[in-house]
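Structure catalogue
Derive tokens from sequence
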Amino acid sequence: MIELVSAQRCIACDKCVKVCPTNVFDRGADGVPVISRQDDCQTCFQCEANCPVDALFVAPQTRPLPEPPEVDELERSGLLGSHREKIGWGRGRTPGAARAVGPGLGPAGGTVLIS
């Protein structure tokens, strides 16, 4: 379940808002998404996977954590945005991994061969 949006990391690109299938986020007054409907989260990880700056944390359980996580602790533990890296979309990804997941990389979503 979505647990945290780091206002310090967020660049207000709205990718998380756009990819969320259950409309969990609202746009905050400062442009940073706000978790407005946490109970609607399906724990699909799409928001975290698509965040280009690893500003989100989705916990694997489908119920809210008893205590909201602290940004500093998530950063120290390496959990903030860690789903992107696990699926090959984060830091250190390889051209092969980029080809294996996600939409096409060419114009209008067309396929681009990476060699």
Summary: The chain has one domain: 2-109. Confidence is low (pLDDT under 50) at residues 93-106, 109-115. The longest strand covers residues 2-5. The first helix runs from residue 15 to 19.
